[in-house]
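Researcher: Good morning. I'm working through a list of sequences from a screen, and I'd like to move beyond sequence-only analysis. For each chain I'm collecting a predicted structure so we can compare shapes side by side. This is the next one on the list. No need for commentary yet; just the structure.
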Amino acid sequence: MRTARILIVVIGLLLPYAARLPHGLDWAQQYAGDGLGATLLLGVFNALAWGALLAVSFFYRRPVSLLAPALAGFGFLAWAHGSLNLAGDAQSAIALVFIPLYALVPILVGAVVGALIDRRLRAG
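Model: Good morning. Structure tokens for this chain:
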């Protein structure tokens, strides 16, 4: 379980940047180009999402149970960060605050599915 938790943290830290790479280096530079302050701010807000996944992991006994909340949460985050064009609108940067908050919903749904998987594996 320890390895799964470390993977959650590493993926959570790198995902916003990796999700932007398919659109080119210019899109990835939108997140990393404003210096250390912007990078830290993005990291703090995204810590809400991967921190929730980390918290959920303490309710499970088997690492496979983490797949449902991780796929749901990281999938939503990848889609949202990959489709956000910061250069398109001056107010689009506000979405950086709300993306991790909205990711809590699929994480919660995935956590329930993960709990059912974990319970099934304990009984079987």
